[in-house]
Amino acid sequence: MALLFFHGAGGYDDDLPLASGIAAALGTELIYPALPTDDWGYEDWAAPIRRRVDAVAPDDLVVAHSFGASVLLRVLAERPRTHPARAVLLAMPEWSEAGWDVADYAFRGPEPATTLSLHHCRDDDVVPFEHIARNAALLPSATRHEHAVGGHQFDGLAAVIAVDVAPA
Predict the structure, then answer these.
(1) What's the Cα-to-Cα distance from 81 to each of 6, 126, 164, rounded to whole Å?
(2) At 78, which helix (H) or strand (E)?
(3) What pLDDT does 119 receive?
(4) Does 64 reside within a domain?
(5) How far is CA 117 from the centre of its chain?
(6) Rounded distance between C-alpha atoms, residue 158 and residue 24, angstroms
(7) Distances (CA, A) of 61 to 4, 55, 64, 84, 149
(8) Strand positions, DSSP E, the chain
(9) What is the domain range of residue 93?
């Protein structure tokens, strides 16, 4: 079992403590690919995420943060996949007209077969907390986890998130 963690836009260094903390709490190997820093097109991010997701083992765990979570969601919805069975999406922006209004990144469904969990902190100063409600409306099967504090980087919450990530 390994933890595959996709960082947010420009967040490779910023997200590493969270990814490492979740992996340590789970006692598992961290797979932490560097995603593009210069190219922000959907396919620029989707192609490497798609390759990694297609290679996950049945018992691997998948977590994505912020922009990485937005792209992972769309990749998971592209076609039926048997793996990953579940994915955890952290501080995911909502890109429709009601959210950040960027059509290229907006999720339009269908809801993926992958079981999803959404996490967001009320004090997130990057992605407004209201985005979790918008995402939950688009993903009615997803489990929703709201945290009072932790900011955009989920400071101090790696062990809490690991509980949700851990296999049942």
Answers:
(1) 18, 31, 21
(2) helix 67-78
(3) 98
(4) no
(5) 9
(6) 9
(7) 6, 12, 10, 7, 24
(8) 2-6, 29-31, 61-65, 86-90, 115-121, 143-147
(9) 13-24+40-52+75-168
Question: What pLDDT sits at residue 38?
Answer: 84
* Residue found under tokens 């490497």: 48
Can you tell me the distance from the alpha carbon of 14 to that of 22, in angstroms, rounded to the nearest whole number? Answer: 14
Enumerate the β-bridge partners of residue 117: 88, 143
Do residues 56 and 4 lie in contact, with contact meaning Cβ atoms separated by under 8 Å?
yes
Q: Which amino acid is at 149?
A: V
Domain total of the chain: 1
Helices 67-78 and 42-54 pack at an angle, to 10 degrees, of 60
pLDDT in tens, 123-159: 999 999 999 999 999 999 999 999 999 999 999 999 9
Is 137 inside any structural domain? yes
The owner of tokens 């790696």 is 158
Q: How far is CA 150 from CA 17, 64, 120, 121, 129, in A?
A: 13, 16, 9, 6, 12
